[in-house]
Write a structure and sequence with these properties.
Number of strands of chain A: 0
Number of domains of chain A: 2
Helix content of chain B: 25-40%
Oligomer: heterodimer
Helix content of chain A: over 70%
Number of helices of chain A: 13
Structural class of chain A: mainly alpha
Number of strands of chain B: 20
CATH topology of the largest domain in chain A: MetI-like fold
Radius of gyration of chain A: 24 Å
Largest sheet of chain A: none
Strand content of chain B: 15-25%
Structural class of chain B: alpha+beta
Radius of gyration of chain B: 28 Å
């Protein structure tokens, strides 16, 4: 319990620190938000009045103070560009991204487990080497290229699935596959390496000696220990996937957070930038915490605190 | 490692079933969660023009649907279907009655009396009155609205006091009765009717807009041919026919659906799969489309009231020497630049586009002439050339053009470095004096008058004078043109100013883009407007 409280306090410090750093960065980069809001055609008077209206004429630390005060009341401000409350914008976009990230991660885990379990006993054979080469090729392929390829063949030529967009589950298949497969291949290699090193361990031999079958040794005894590093990676990846789906979302015009953050940065929409960064930070901190707790479940020898 | 530390596992079989059950539930939840409500449209009567839904796609979301705020073609496309202005443009960019059925202008063009059409209503059925017209214009002027359009209406008597908060209403804006609107200007303005045709001046239910504030953009209410039915941010936007529209015959369409966030290549695939009715043509596919007579017949094109140019900072040496700027103009092979765009452009000879009223054909511009460029550079003392830097926003087209300029400049000895900058930083930098030597930009007309290019881009006090060009003679001509009511006389002053500007070459005048779109065989009446986004009120579809 004490551990948990400590971790939560730390999380708070991390989050406040994140807002401070982001705020500083936004104001350090060249570019004037008022000017962007005013648009390319505005005269000086319009820009000045917009700067006043958005309180951008105050010193940065005062603006930051105002931001924190509003944040404490749960108010993330309004987007400069669309004038919508940032909280609402994030709430509308998060489910789509979470769905895509979860589906992508699901595919990655299934692919990773299957790939790792199949190739580990074959370590050193030509099947294993072939798989390695294929994995490397897959890992090197850029997401937007894979995405366009999938759209072109599966969506356009073969008409099996919709050409992007969000709607029913059919819309989810391609982006989730593209998002998940690269990660899945990586997981497969990771698990493969871990399994190979674990398969020589004493307890595996002991399990075999006790008469455990080949499959059972691999899937239960070895996997359990070999999956610990994978669990860490997966936990971190979920947060990374949530934040890193920009390209996939762009290729498949999936209405999620990635595109929102991207557009906000380009248009210096400070409240939206702050909101997305804060949300990302919350997700990273939360998934880190979740992984730590899960460790304990998977391997009771790990004591927290 | 101690074998005992691995906890004995429960029998595998029941666990798998439990997991499978959880998994099945999860999949079910996802499916249900994803299932979006389908849009239902009325069935079409056979043989009728009326009915059908126009399916479109766009790479970006719509910035806003609030006419006081939108200042981009994406927003304007939807706004002009949701709202109306007192005066409007027909398909040839001529001013025609909009919400006002007639208007009288005093001889000095300072006083306007507009008479609204009878029985106007907003799409929810509430009456649209002169008070809404006054309220809408005051809303644009109100600093709290942060409208980019405010500057167009600052010439109304009392507007400055209102903006400064010294008056609760604009004295020069009155509604003597429900159908009459009086507007008084501080000085005569030959362009005022054009300003009233801008979507900034669209009439909104003033009280509701004030109440909703920033939320008016998501709950827009106007008197236009369509109403907003659904707007899923970043996903799709749907308009439906306004059953209370003042013209009972229009629009023909039941609705418009636009998928958002679709990149041009994907949009093309969707069009080819029959999922879209109208699309742009990606550069890679353009030559093939135009080679195929059947496909080419389904394209339409128009030269935009737009000029793409390269700004040369007149305050930064050696660009402060007009001979150097002229030399750079001669050095660029504009035909090659247009070839980079698959020929989708018309060579520019000056700043005013060819289909603009008041366009003069006699300007010779700067035909490609490398020898002349070298001679001018030598005359200016730069026979050995010099080095400078072009700032660009770094889109594919921008970069291609910048590289082409780099090659052409190199052949006359000028080393051009390319600096790719994000939009926000670009906007900021180009307004700072002596910061950006060369920049790549364009300007499109807000209304069809040469002053919309000349005054904005070349008056020494202009907010968009990015070349920092200043010539008192040009300023005088442009200032005089601001008040001359007679169109021929005004166009004469504009033409003289343009002649001086082109001679001084503060820009490299590149090209006027030609817009191409392709539509499905079923689509009729789709047209590209000279300077506004397409209006689809007259579009009709063949029944399936």
């Amino acid at each position: 319990m004490r551990y948990l409280i400590g971790r939560l306090l730390w999380a708070l410090v991390i989050l406040v620190g994140t807002t401070a750093i982001t705020f500083a960065i936004v104001f350090l980069v060249p570019g004037d938000p008022a000017r962007v809001v005013a648009g390319p055609r505005a005269d000086a008077a319009t820009i000045a009045s917009i700067r006043r209206e958005l309180a951008l004429d105050l010193p940065v630390h005062v603006q930051y103070g105002h931001y924190l005060a509003r944040l404490a009341h749960g108010d993330l401000g309004r987007s400069y560009a669309t004038r919508q409350p940032v909280g609402e914008i994030l709430a509308r976009r998060l489910p789509a991204t979470a769905l895509l990230a979860a589906a992508g991660l699901g595919i990655a885990v299934v692919l990773g487990l299957a790939g790792g379990l199949v190739t580990a006993p074959l370590a050193g054979t030509w099947v294993d080497r072939g798989a390695l080469v294929l994995s490397l090729a897959f890992l090197s392929a850029p997401v937007f290229w894979l995405g366009m390829l999938a759209l072109y063949y599966v969506g356009y030529r073969w008409r099996l699935l919709p050409l992007g967009g969000a709607g029913d589950i059919r819309h989810l298949v391609l982006p989730a596959l593209v998002l998940g497969s690269g990660t899945g291949v990586y997981y497969a290699r990771l698990l493969h390496t871990n399994l190979v090193s674990v398969l020589d361990a004493d307890y595996i031999r002991a399990a075999r000696a006790r008469g455990a079958g080949r499959g059972r040794v691999l899937a239960v005894h070895a996997l359990r220990n070999a999956s610990l590093p994978l669990l860490t990676v997966i936990g971190l990846d979920f947060a990374a996937l949530l934040n890193g789906v920009v390209l996939t979302e762009t290729v498949f015009h999936w209405p999620g957070l990635g595109r929102l953050a991207f557009d906000a940065v380009l248009s210096l929409d400070v409240p939206v930038i702050m909101g997305t960064v804060l949300l990302s930070a919350v997700l990273v901190v939360a998934s880190n915490l979740a992984v730590d707790l899960l460790y304990r479940v998977v391997d009771p020898r790990i004591r927290l605190g | 490692m101690n074998v005992a530390s691995v906890k004995p596992t429960a029998p595998a079989a029941p666990r798998v079933t439990r997991r499978a059950r959880v998994l099945a539930l999860l999949v079910l939840a996802l499916t249900v969660g994803c299932e979006r409500d389908r849009l239902d449209w009325p069935a079409r009567a056979p043989g009728e023009r009326r009915g059908g839904v126009l399916r479109l796609a766009a790479p970006e979301d719509v910035p806003t649907l609030d006419p006081a705020l939108g200042y981009d073609t994406r927003s304007w496309f939807f706004e002009q279907h949701l709202f109306e202005t007192l005066v409007a443009y027909d398909e040839r960019a001529v001013l025609v009655p909009g919400l006002a059925e007639r208007w009288e202008v005093s001889p000095d063009a300072r006083r306007y009396r507009f008479t609204l059409r009878r029985d106007l209503v907003f799409s929810d059925g509430t009456p649209l009155t002169a008070t809404d017209v006054v309220g809408s214009l005051e809303r644009v002027l109100d600093p709290r609205t942060r409208s980019q359009g405010a500057e167009y209406f600052r010439g109304i008597v009392g507007a400055e006091e209102f903006v400064r908060g010294e008056a609760s209403h604009v004295v020069g804006l009155r509604a003597p009765d429900a159908r009459a609107v009086d507007i008084e200007l501080a000085a005569s303005d030959p362009l005022f009717l054009h300003k009233l045709a801008l979507l900034f001046a669209a009439v909104v239910p003033a009280e509701r807009a004030r109440r909703l504030g920033d939320d008016f953009t998501t709950q827009p209410l106007g008197s236009g041919p369509f109403v907003l039915r659904e707007w899923r941010r970043g996903e799709r936007i749907v308009l439906a026919r306004n059953p209370r529209y003042r013209d009972p015959e229009r629009p023909y369409l039941d609705g418009i659906v636009q998928q958002l966030g679709v990149n041009p290549e994907l949009s093309w695939l969707m069009f080819e799969s029959g999922e879209l009715d109208v699309t742009g043509i990606p550069p890679a596919d353009f030559p093939a489309v135009m080679r195929d007579p059947e496909q080419a017949a389904l394209t339409i094109h128009a030269t935009a009231l737009e000029t793409m140019f390269v700004g040369l900072n007149c305050e930064m040496p050696p660009l402060d020497d007009p001979r150097v700027r002229q030399a750079l103009n001669y050095a660029v092979n504009k035909a090659d630049v247009i070839a980079l765009l698959n020929g989708r452009g018309v060579e520019a000879r000056g700043i005013v586009p060819p289909n603009m009223p008041g366009y003069r054909v006699e300007l010779a511009g700067y035909p490609f002439d490398r020898e002349k460029a070298r001679a001018l550079l030598a005359e200016a003392g730069f026979a050995a050339g010099f080095a400078t830097e072009i700032w660009t926003q770094g889109t594919d087209t921008d970069l291609k053009i910048a590289q082409k300029l780099q090659q052409d400049f190199a052949k006359v000895g000028v080393q051009l470095a390319i600096k790719s900058v994000a939009w926000a930083s670009f906007l900021d930098a180009i307004r700072q004096p002596k910061t950006v030597p060369v920049l790549d930009l364009g300007w499109s007309a807000d209304f069809p008058d040469p002053s919309n290019f000349l005054d904005v881009l070349f008056h020494s006090g202009g907010a968009n004078n990015h070349a920092f060009y200043a010539d008192p003679a040009v300023d005088r001509l442009l200032e005089e043109a601001r008040t001359v009511l007679d169109e021929t006389a005004r166009f004469g002053l504009d033409a003289e100013a343009e002649r001086l500007i082109v001679a001084a070459a503060p820009l490299i005048f590149l090209y006027h883009p030609i817009t191409y779109v392709m539509h499905d065989r079923r689509v009729h009446g789709y047209a590209i407007h000279p300077f506004l986004p397409a209006r689809v009120t007259d579009v009709w579809l063949d029944p399936e």
